[in-house]
């Protein structure tokens, strides 16, 4: 049975922190190796060298472990880079995403989580929270570009950041084409050019009051 405190809401120290770290590392390894359908709390406990009772009591379900893993990944992500220009910032974002997706463990992990999110509502909500955190982290680079006069005033920051990542995830999930730094740079350049041209200006009815 899961505890009343939701996964990822505690900031424990000492042994509790070490147990959480070990369990999430084990869950990530298992997810990358076997996918979501292959996850089992008993196997995760074994990999983490943690008692089954501890894992069942702390998390309770596989989806709760995945939710906590995504929370931890969002917390551990590198902070936003500030270069002083829109293109520089978007290129830094794109290269960070690219490096993550081509990493043997991280790329496989994201594939598994995304696949699970298509059929499991809890995983879908957890994945949405993860990406919302990343959008919130990087959207200020668009806001700053608006303030510098690089972009139209009503540009939607989240849409610009999504436009950078979308081609990279498409290559990861739907093609066998290379996903290297040059692809990341092109994605950033295309998003920056489209943003400057007004492609991501909010429609009048969507503008905040």
From TrEMBL:
Where the record puts its DNA-binding region(s)? 40-59
Q: Say which domain of life the source belongs to.
A: Bacteria
TM region positions: none
User: What would you give as a GO molecular function for this chain, any one?
Assistant: DNA-binding transcription factor activity
A Pfam family of the record is: TetR_N
Q: Where is the signal peptide?
A: none
Which keywords are on file for this protein? Answer: DNA-binding, Transcription, Transcription regulation
HTH tetR-type domain residues are 17-77
Q: What is this protein called?
A: Transcriptional regulator, TetR family
């Amino acid at each position: 049975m899961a505890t009343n405190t939701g996964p990822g809401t505690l900031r424990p120290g000492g042994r509790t922190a070490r147990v959480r770290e070990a369990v999430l590392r084990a869950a990530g390894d298992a997810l990358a190796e076997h996918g979501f359908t292959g996850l089992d709390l008993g196997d995760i406990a074994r990999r983490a060298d943690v008692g089954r009772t501890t894992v069942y009591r702390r998390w309770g379900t596989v989806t709760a472990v995945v939710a906590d893993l995504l929370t931890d990944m969002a917390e551990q992500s590198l902070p936003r880079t500030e270069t002083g220009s829109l293109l520089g910032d978007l290129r830094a974002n794109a290269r960070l995403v690219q490096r993550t997706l081509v990493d043997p463990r991280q790329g496989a992990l994201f594939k598994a989580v995304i696949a699970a999110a298509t059929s499991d509502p809890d995983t879908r909500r957890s994945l949405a929270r993860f990406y919302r955190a990343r959008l919130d982290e990087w959207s200020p680079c668009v806001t700053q570009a608006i303030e510098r006069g690089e972009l139209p005033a009503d540009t939607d920051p989240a849409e610009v950041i999504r436009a950078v990542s979308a081609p990279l995830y498409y290559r990861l999930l739907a093609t066998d084409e290379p996903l290297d730094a040059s692809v990341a740079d092109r994605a950033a350049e295309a998003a920056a050019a489209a943003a400057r041209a007004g492609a991501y200006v909010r429609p009048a009815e969507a503008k905040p009051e």
